[in-house]
Amino acid sequence: MPLNTQPNFSEPGKRYFRAFSPGDDFYEMLIDTHRDLSDEQSAMVNARLILLLANHIGDISVLREAMQIAREGV
Amino acid sequence: MLSTYKYPKYEYRRPPELDGAGQGHHPVIIVGAGPVGLATAIDLAQHGQRVVLLDNDDTVSIGSRGVCYAKRALEVLDRIGCGEEMVAKGVSWNVGRTFFREQEVFNFNLCPEPDHHRPGMINLQQYYLEEYLVKRAEAVGGIDLRWKNNVVGVTQQADGVELRVETPDGAYSLNADWLVVADGARSPIRSMLDLDIEGKIFMDRFLIADVVMDADFPTERWFWFDPPFHPNQSVLLHRQADNVFRIDFQLGWEADPEEEKKPENVIPRIKAMLGDDRPFELEWVSVYTFQCRRMKDFRHGRALFVGDAAHQVSPFGARGANSGIQDADNLVWKLKLVIDGQAPEQLLDSYSAERVFAADENIMNSTRSTDFITPKSPVSKTFRNAVLGLAEHYAFARALVNSGRLSVPSFLTESILNTPDTDTFAGDMVPGAPMDDAPIESAGSAPWLLGTLGNRFQLLHFVEDAATLDLGTVHALKALAHERVAVEAIVVAARGQAPEALRTVIDKAGRIRERYDMRAGTTYLARPDQHVAARWRAFDADAVRAAVARATCN
Ligand SMILES: Cc1cc2nc3c(=O)[nH]c(=O)nc-3n(C[C@H](O)[C@H](O)[C@H](O)COP(=O)(O)OP(=O)(O)OC[C@H]3O[C@@H](n4cnc5c(N)ncnc54)[C@H](O)[C@@H]3O)c2cc1C
Known about the structure:
Chain A is mostly helical. Chain A has helices at 21-33, 39-57, 60-71.
């Protein structure tokens, strides 16, 4: 399965009436995860988060594609 | 400043109480003739309820405040008789462009679903909204609108309130059974009653400039993140009526408001933004900060809080006046039933519960926009810029760009007034949902479903061919009009006219069937504020009576 770059957030059992809600739920949670951390701590949280998610995705071809996109133009 | 608009000056009249006349006692007094107090007064007057409306000023909102009025507010304004004027004068827009640094990263089209009467949003200066509301308030009858009447004291009693009012001619007292508090964000009445409002102040300042120009700018919303002409901050451009453009510059917390407001500082900013020498005239400049906060409860005994007095949000997403108008929409039918003795006072607690729920959603959405627009930490800013960088090519990232979400009504799914579903339905018209519009054909009524709904409980009963409806059902439907809380039955059909002149609307484009998942027999109970109260796959008069009782706390 190729990397999915379409909007893809949802929470099981939760009903959404507005298209923007699931993405905004995610984004708020992401920012909240970093609340009150130093920059160094935030960098560590981000690294751990990537490792956890990468393992969950598992498919290395998908991860390769994501890593390529992430590096482009940085 | 302000060359395009002439402020009306409304006439102060000496209150009769100062000469020992007047009643002194009133069923409803509203304090504050801003958009929300005016909407409340008009709605009550349309229900045949006399009201006194007090305001300490004698004109409309000064300067540049509300700009965007959303579909749901326009639908409420339609119901109270001001929607048409708003839409005619307002500027409709659909395209929003988002820029990051030098580049446009994407644009969106609000282009609404087809077959709705009102657009997603219009832009119009707030003073026009208030001017139209005042005109309507004067025309509707039953509103004793008193300008230059400043409320300086309020005392709560078990079954009413007493107000102390100052006028240019002296002070007097008034009593009311019910007080609607619509006196704005600073709410003197809230302070007089020693009530709290909790939330947070955002540590940022924004400069707003209204500029008149014959610009060939398209009628679009432009939002810049970190543009070269205003580095590290955001800028928003909106077109309003009369060729007035509204520009919001984010300044940061350190900025000095007095310095920033000076024309010699504002004009170069605007020139840099326009990028050329096109002529413009400055109409209005101010610097604002904002807060997101709400009262715990919008009802305190006989005092009912509406609009900014009850809750405030950041302006991103335009939820201030839009949500305040929906407060009025929610409150008025309930208050009228209580005053008329058709529902217990507890119904007014549901006003608070439902609008607190909506306020929380509004505060949540506008806080999220604010956090995206003005990131609070380096890591938030990194994420924000990463989203913007990916947005050009990747749809998922575009969906995360949050420069203000369209103000949309809440689905009141948690309300105790709802009768839970016992049948299954597709789509979004769940109990508590704000009802979707659809084009209809109907003798002597507006060609829109929402133009037919509102102001009373109504029952929509669907059949393919209205002419085939059996007389037993016709009589049972008609009988609902004679209940203690009357329900008007409306037959919705693909074709035909129901027997015995029972009101029938034709679902011309099939949108009612589609949006409400209607089949033969499907029946919806609509609240007076155009929200779904209950729905069934078949009509059962006892079930309807029970649902009406539930929706009125009876
Ligand atoms: C920069 C900015 C941009 C905004 N943009 C939008 C937008 O795009 N869309 C939107 O929907 N909203 C917007 N808003 C919010 C909107 O302006 C307010 O939400 C709206 O005005 C609230 O209406 P209101 O009737 O509750 O209160 P107000 O408009 O504040 O009216 C209160 C009234 O009460 C009167 N009053 C106060 N005290 C007393 C007293 N003691 N006795 C008698 N009368 C009294 C005042 O004179 C006033 O007329 C914006 C606000 C700002 C500042």
